[in-house]
Write a structure and sequence with these properties.
four-stranded mixed beta sheet, alpha/beta
């Protein structure tokens, strides 16, 4: 496997699954009709507002269903035609995909330690309470009594300490809900179905923070459920390519069903005050408003796997994205300069004569150094490609700039082939691609 794939594996990310696509229908989660190991996963998906099919298997049907699943066990998450197994791995995958995991190595280790401690707690509980335990009734009763005398208090004390360490005692780690909380809440809900255990949770006084924690977090999940159906992302920008075009192209390539809200210039003055920073683009997603185009692009690129994790590739993507942005910014500087027409024309000439060729040559240099010369970095789309196509589409479809930009493209080898966007391209994308397309070159032997 490639070095990049190794990095993904070390971080618990399967690159093939990171850009979950909706064209094959919603996710399917298979488990029994009980909380169990799937309940935390259900809670996470509900909290994230992700539509999924909650397939609950009856125990009498399990022998016939069992061979359908890898490892012959559930829960299984069916995603993009693939089966994801192991509840722990599924939780981490969804946590990274929907923002319930920290990227800081220390924070991640703390969250994993809490989840592993819940596993230890579950093991102790299972040994004492599960019907299939191979112990005699009298021995099981003694084990259950011992569980509440020692193990229950030990583990609850550990989690109580985690809540005390928090600033507001709201979450097991950090200041927002994480996979560790869903793991805990799933276990709590399962154990409360057993009357021998539920009373211990409900009447405990020695762990007041844990008691308040369970009540508050379940209320949070309940409130999330009342928020209404899942809302698709909404990207607000002007009815033109501009800075928002790269976001549109990225979302299309990831096959994300989103609302492309195009604001007319005549409507902008009365709408301006309703947007953060009074500027566009703005992306509404996961119940939040995201601002600043570069920040939005990085957020989407991480979520849909268009930003490589290997440091040198990450640098190249960011370098190229910023270089492309310089092309756009240079235009904005002269066009909106407010200078007299003669001075403005001079700036425009300098921009197309000096700035744009230098920037395009820098982009071309990185392309020729890449093994797969169909993409700017690596062998698949990255954030840099969407920046490049976005700005080129804008300059080529703008009558004021096309006549100046197109000849420059002919003086340097064309920066990238965008034939892979054909499935998603609009009529305007087609015009842009035909202007940019070049013959595929033979890849070099060196690895990039």
């Amino acid at each position: 496997s490639s070095a990049a794939s190794d990095v993904y594996k070390r971080q618990g990310i399967n690159a093939e699954y990171m850009g979950y696509k909706m064209e094959k229908g919603p996710m399917k989660l298979y488990y029994f009709d009980m909380p169990g190991r799937a309940e935390g996963i259900r809670m996470l998906l509900h909290h994230a507002g992700v539509p999924f099919e909650d397939v609950r298997i009856k125990f009498e049907n399990w022998p016939a269903e069992k061979p359908k699943f890898e490892l012959g066990q559930v829960p299984v998450l069916e995603c993009h035609g693939k089966q994801l197994t192991q509840s722990y791995a599924i939780m981490l995958y969804l946590g990274r995909l929907y923002g319930y995991m920290y990227t800081c190595p220390y924070a991640s280790s703390e969250i994993l330690a809490i989840m592993n401690t819940w596993d230890d707690f579950n093991m102790k509980f299972g040994s004492a309470f599960m019907p299939q335990s191979p112990f005699e009734p009298a021995q099981k009763t003694a084990m259950q009594e011992e569980f509440f005398k020692t193990d229950f208090n030990f583990f609850m004390g550990f989690f109580e300490g985690k809540l005390k360490a928090g600033e507001k005692h709201d979450y097991l780690f950090g200041n927002q809900i994480t996979v560790a909380d869903f793991y805990a809440l799933g276990t709590y809900k399962q154990m409360r179905t057993d009357p021998r255990v539920a009373g211990k949770y409900d009447t405990q006084t020695e762990f007041p923070l844990m008691k308040a924690y369970f009540a508050a977090r379940l209320k949070e999940l309940e409130d999330k459920g009342k928020a209404g159906p899942f809302k698709k992302p909404k990207l607000s920008y002007f009815d033109m390519p501009g800075r928002g075009e790269a976001c549109r192209l990225l979302l299309r390539q990831a096959k994300v069903d989103f609302e492309d809200a195009r604001i007319g210039f005549q409507d902008w003055p009365k709408l301006k005050e309703s947007f953060p920073l009074k500027q566009l683009p703005v992306l509404e997603i996961d119940g939040r408003q995201l601002v600043q185009n570069d920040a939005i692009m990085q957020f989407l690129s991480i979520r849909y796997d268009f930003l490589p994790m290997k440091p040198d590739k990450y640098y190249r993507v960011i370098f190229l994205a910023n270089t492309v942005r310089d092309i756009y910014d240079g235009y904005v500087r002269y066009y909106f300069s407010g200078l007299p027409e003669a001075a403005k024309t001079k700036m425009e000439t300098d921009y197309f004569t000096n700035s744009v060729p230098v920037l395009l040559k820098a982009i071309e240099k990185r392309l020729t150094e890449n093994k797969s010369q169909e993409y700017l970095v690596g062998r698949k789309y990255s954030m840099a490609d969407f920046y490049m196509l976005g700005v080129s589409k804008w300059l080529l479809l703008n009558p004021q700039t096309q006549a100046k930009y197109e000849p420059i493209l002919k003086t340097v080898p064309v920066p990238v082939s965008y034939t892979h966007l054909r499935a998603h391209e609009t009529r305007e994308d087609l015009v842009c691609r035909l202007l940019l397309e070049k013959k595929k070159q033979t890849p070099k032997d060196k690895d990039n």
